[in-house]
Design goal:
19 strands; 32% helix; globular; five-stranded mixed sheet; 14 helices; alpha+beta
Amino acid sequence: HIAGEHSTGVIKITTRQTVQLHGIIKSHIKPTIKAFNEAHLNSIATCGDINRNVLCTSNPTQSPLYDQVFEIANQICDLLLPKTHAYHEIWLDGEKITDKDEEKDPLYQDRYLPRKFKIGVVIPPNNDIDVLANDLALIAIIENDELKGFNLAIGGGLSTTHGNPDTYARLATVIGFTDTSKTLKAVYEIVTIQRDYGNRSDRKLARLKYTVDKYGMDWYRMELEHRTGFAIEPARTYEFNDRSDYYGWTQSHEGNWHYTLFIENGRVHDEPELPLKTALLEVAKSGRATFRFTPNQNLILSDVAPSDKSLIDDILDRYGIIKQTAGTSLVRKNSMSCVALPTCPLALAEAQRYFPSLISKIEPLLFKNGLDRENIIIRMTGCPNGCARSYNAEIGFVGTAPGRYNLHIGGDFEGTRLNKIYRESLDETGILNTLDELFTDFKRSGKSGERFGDFSFRKMNEVSA
C-alpha cells in the first residue's frame, strides 16, 4: 500500500536484503518514511559514512542454530547504529534537541567513517550472502551442534572506477577467530580502526580494503588485539559449497515451513501473466507467514506452521507462482542485476530492464551445447560499483556505456574467487557470440564435474602462461 500510494508501485528487493521504492516525488518522501515507521520498519543507516544494514544467511533451514546467528546480526546492527536523533527530528516530527551533548557518539564521534561500511554474517556451507564481498565478514563456526564463534574476514568490497587502476574489487581476508563472547567487541574495534586509519583524502580509496592493503594484515591484527585487549585466535576450518537460494518448500528443525519464490531481479509488481504483488498481498493479509528477503533478490515466505502450509500453497498456486518458480531455468534463477539506468544516477548502462531479455538469448546457447542443467552464476551491473556483485559471478557483465558491457569470467561457484575481464565494451551481438564460443569450448574440453567458472579460470590461466 505504501508503494502504491507514494511510488511507481514497484517494490524492489535489493541485494542487501532490503527494499527500494522508486519515483517518489519530494513531497511524498516524509509521508513514505512515516508510513514505514508505523509499520515498524525504518530507513535509518541506509546511506552515509556509517555501517549499513547487516546481512545474514536468509533461510532458517540452514541450521538449527539459525536464530542464534540471526540474533548476533541484530546485535551488531544495534551496536553500530549512529546515535543522532536527526532521522526522527526530520522525518518523524521528533522534538528538536537543543543540547547536542546528549547526542555524543563514541563510535562515530564528530566525523563518522571515511566511507560506508558493510557487514555480513553467514552460516556455512551455503555462502548465500556472498559474505566475502563485505568490509567485514563473520563466518559462523558450528561444532558438535554448538555455535562456537566466528571467523572474521576483513577488507572485502567490489566497487571500482573505470579507468582508475588504483581502485579494485577485493574479497575479504580471514584474520582469525573469536568466540561468541568476544565477537561484538572485535566487530566494534574493527570499525574504530577504519574510523581512525581509513583514507579521508580520497573517497574512491576510502573503503576498508584499501586500509588493509596499506597497513597489512599483521599490523591490522596487532592493532585489533591492542584495542580489544585479547588475542585473535587462529581461524577455524569451514567450507563453502553453494551460494544459492533453496527454491520451493523447505522445513526447519522446529517444524515450520519456508517457501522461497524466484523474483527476477527483485522486482515485485503485477504482470498480466504473473500478478505477483497481488498474490503476496493476499499472503500478508492472511497473517500466516512472515517475509524474509534474500541477498539474491528473492523472497522467502517464512515461519509457516504445518497447519497453514496448505493455505499458503493454495494462494501461490492460484496466482501461478509455484509454476513460475519451478519452471524458471537454472541460469535465470542464478541471475541478478542492479537497478541501473534510468533509475540510478551512477549507471552507465541498463541492467534490470535489459537483463531478462539477454538471459532469454543466453538460454538457447546453453541448450544448444547441452548445458541447460548447469548451475552457472551470471550477474549484471550498469556501472563498476558492483551492487549486484558482478565481480564475483562466474559470468559478470559490467556496464561501460549504453548497450555496452565488459565481460568478466572465472569467478567460482562458491563466491571465494573474483572473476577477470575477458572482453571489453561488448554490445549484445559480441556478448552472445563470445558466450557461444565459451560454452562450446566448455562442453568440448571441460573436465568431469568441473564448473564453468573453474573451467574459464583454468583456460585464462593456460592462455596467460
